[in-house]
Amino acid sequence: xxxxxxxxxxxxxxxxxxxxxxxxxxxxxxxxxxxxxxxxxxxxxxxxxxxxxxxxxxxxxxxxxxxxxxxxxxxxxxxxxxxxxxxxxxxxxxxxxxxxxxxxxxxxxxxxxxxxxxxxxxxxxxxxxxxxxxxxxxxxxxxxxxxxxxxxxxxxxxxxxxxxxxxxxxxxxxxxxxxxxxxxxxxxxxxxxxxxxxxxxxxxxxxxxxxxxxxxxxxxxxxxxxxxxxxxxxxxxxxxxxxxxxxxxxxxxxxxxxxxxxxxxxxxxxxxxxxxxxxxxxxxxxxxxxxxxxxxxxxxxxxxxxxxxxxxxxxxxxxxxxxxxxxxxxxxxxxxxxxxxxxxxxxxxxxxxxxxxxxxxxxxxxxxxxxxxxxxxxxxxxxxxxxxxxxxxxxxxxxxxxxxxxxxxxxxxxxxxxxxxxxxxxxxxxxxxxxxxxxxxxxxxxxxxxxxxxxxxxxxxxxx
Length: 464
Ligand code: FAD
Fold this sequence. Notes:
464 residues; 20 helices
């Protein structure tokens, strides 16, 4: 990342291409990871430039459904969130253009047709979006930027390298938080009207609904995403969490038999609310209520340190989906146990259908395939057992990524890839006592669940 060109005016922005187009007719924000109108620094940066040059501003979203990797229900969640965004943007005189198809082709078509002066992306540390942004920066004859509005401290400011773990990133983030944990400006009514007609999403939505309906159903059809989508739902979930759950969050978050988590990961993943907003609101609440302080500290650890550590890893290490991304001690240790006898071996179909001998594991799998989310504590157990029951760590990682991304509404996220490598291959962890199959990677056992919480209640809750 030595050649990263961080904007001198705003450290949240990197300049991917400085080739400006002085004759440009508009400014575009390509919304992808941060699907919201409030607290969106990428949208705000695009509006600032449009205002400076008296240009219209539009938001572009490219949709390319892939039902082999994500359940159809995820696209419905995404689309209804977009419909709300379209309405909110329209109130500010900013149109939302939704394009369907190959992002490279559609975006280049858009650039050729609309001739923007400048284009803003929201930062995404994953390989696909990064390559897309680099491609557009090379091809388009306008300035191209990426803005980190997903992390409180921009990933390139938090650290210039891949961190060893939370213990090395934590002090860096704590030192920088005061500079970045600040209220963002508000999006203003855009004074320059968009000149041409726009295809409304409602019309396009029908086309997309049909497109999804026509696609073959891959896997489970009983998945029902319990979370309503969109910005309003995200804010309401955030407010409920701070009002009712933050008080006991430090303790209850590790108990899958209770409803003690924030439930915010679907919204954070799609960017319907920013972690910045959640932390700002929780901080205000905790300042006047000392009984919220412990919950607030725990939230900082999860939603800032752990979450931003995941982006740090994926930003600096392209091997986030395979064993090569794991620390060397863990790779060597797992390899030295490759021929250990596996007492149970399951194939992907058996795992997917929750047909193993372990009722706790089956319950967690059912929680995910029925509700689109698995309790965070069970996610660790769920992962580690798949390592035990797969022919190799590589096979375990591949299966876990498929299952997590396909069913979990917060899947396809740096948090998921890092969580899987943490569980299976010791990423951001230390060596533990040696055990069969796991080697020095930390293991988990059913009796541990039993000691920690009422596992029977959890199993009963997710029984068919
Ligand atoms: P809360 O406990 O209320 O957490 C609040 C927020 O803090 C989360 O939304 C998330 O942004 C952050 N957070 C909490 N725990 C972690 C963590 N361990 N690492 C990074 N950030 C964290 N998270 C995802 O967002 N998507 C995934 O696909 C995903 N897959 C995971 C797979 C495995 C194997 C493991 C061990 C963890 C995974 N996580 C994933 C991290 C964590 O389990 C979830 O973020 C959490 O369960 C989401 O539910 P919540 O928002 O109600 O949690």
